[in-house]
Amino acid sequence: MGIKSIFNDMASRDNYDEVMEYLAVAETQHAPRFEFDDAPEQLRELIAVAETPRGPKRSAWLNDYAEKSWQAPDGEAEVLLAEDHLNAIRYVNRYLRKANAKLKQDGYLVCSFDTAQKHRAQIFSKHPRFLARIIYFFDFLWHRACPKLGLTRRFYYLCTKKVRKVFPRPEILGRLYYCGFEVVSEQYIHDRYCVIGQKKRAPHDEPHTYGPLVKLRRIGKDGKKFNVLKFRTMYAYSEYLQTYIYENNNLDVGGKFSDDYRVTEWGRFLRKTWLDELPMFINVLKGQMKIVGVRPLSQQYFNLYSKELQELRTKTKPGLLPPFYVDMPETLEEIQDSERRYLESYLEHPLRTDWRYFWKIVGNIVFRGKRSK
Predict the structure, then answer these.
(1) In the chain, N or C: fewer CB atoms in 10 Å?
(2) Which of the 8 DSSP states describes residue 81?
(3) For residue 268, what are the CA distances in angstroms to 41, 155, 260?
């Protein structure tokens, strides 16, 4: 690429309309498809009005609907419309919990927000590319990092007269599941992301943090659940989307979710280099895991296994180095066969099996470059 081409690229701006057309397809690629024919008449009317062209009449109707819907007594509302877009709400979880309390079982919450991708598109469409990168970096620190860090949160809200937090799509979806909803529909209405959540359960009560360490609930020996420690590789609240991702994404080669958009760019690097698993040595020291063994599984993954293999898995501790790196299976059936061979051998000759598997795994990783996706 010549100097002139490099300069032109740095000085160019993204076309906002083209980017939004792309996002309308890309961000909803694995979204659930909702049958509005079976929805309550209130919900169908609400979405029909929301999809009409923007104007004073539309805004007045939506504002009036939102205000009236929130006047329903707790546990009796059938359809709620969020009173503002979620970026402008300071305590999002508190707001979603309140919506959960207002709705009857299987009631619907309709809310919208500006995604992080849209926010980026706005910046890169207004400024030359070289300047947009600089603005985006500082905007990221201010609107995404500062509101979430204990040391800067109060300062952010003190300086920001109007809340304008920026949320990645997986974080909002995860917050909805955390607060007792299941996502039944996602779509861009005009250029704002609209999500419909259906109340299915009470909100989770465990606290959530934005720290670099995450605790993931996994099934261990004797079927007892324990918290696996890892460095964060996904967007906040993504751990609550396990079932949602399974229902809307296919399993890829190696048993992982295909196109798992919950993983950040930094997270992909940590996973590729296995740095995200370093804190799991704490689980080993606690006696919850061992060096060689089958992967610790979430309840969602565990339920995909045969009953026979589930029983075999719970007879021993999970491990840091799984038999996956010996056989490199591609399908779920092949993964189960690989683990079954290891477990049957381990239960007969524990030390000999782990010693043999350890050197095979190290050899495949170090000398043959074997990796999981």
Answers:
(1) N
(2) E
(3) 43, 31, 10
pLDDT of residue 288: 96
pLDDT of residue 154: 87
Rounded Cα gap, residues 292 and 318, in angstroms:
8
Q: Is 275 helix (H, G, I), strand (E, B) or coil?
A: helix
Q: Residue 88 and residue 164: Cα distance in Å, rounded?
A: 5
Beta strands in the chain (DSSP E): 77-81, 103-113, 181-189, 192-199, 213-219, 225-231, 290-292, 319-321
**Cα 41–249–301 angle (5° rounding)?**
110
What are the tens digits of pLDDT across the range 189-199?
988 999 999 99
Average pLDDT, the chain: 88
Name residue, tokens 């990783």.
365
Q: Which long-range contacts link 38-41 to residues 24+ away (Cβ below 8 Å)?
A: 39/108, 40/78, 40/79, 40/108
Higher pLDDT, 4 or 83: 83
Look-up of token digits 């992967």: 295
At residue 8, φ and ψ (nearest 5 deg) are -65, -40
pLDDT score at 179: 96
* Spatial contact of 183 and 30, defined as CB atoms under 8 Å apart: no
pLDDT value for 271: 84
Confidence check: pLDDT of 318 > 90: yes
Crossing angle, helix 92-102 and helix 169-178, to 10 degrees? 50
Question: Which amino acid, 213?
Answer: L
How far is residue 156's CA from residue 142's CA, in Å, rounded to a whole number? 8
Q: Which amino acid is at 350?
A: P
Query: Which fold would CATH assign to domain 3-117+149-199?
Result: Rossmann fold (3.40.50)
**Sign of the C-alpha dihedral, residues 373, 258, 230, 294?**
negative
Q: In angstroms, rounded to a whole number, what is the distance separating the alpha carbons of residues 316 and 221?
A: 5
How far apart are the C-alpha atoms of 354 and 57, rounded to whole Å? Answer: 70
pLDDT score for 258: 60
pLDDT at 97: 97
pLDDT at position 274: 82
Entry field: residues in the chain: 373
pLDDT score for 207: 80
pLDDT for res 229: 93
Pairing of strands 181-189, 77-81: unpaired
Backbone angles phi, psi at 227, to 5 degrees: -95, 115
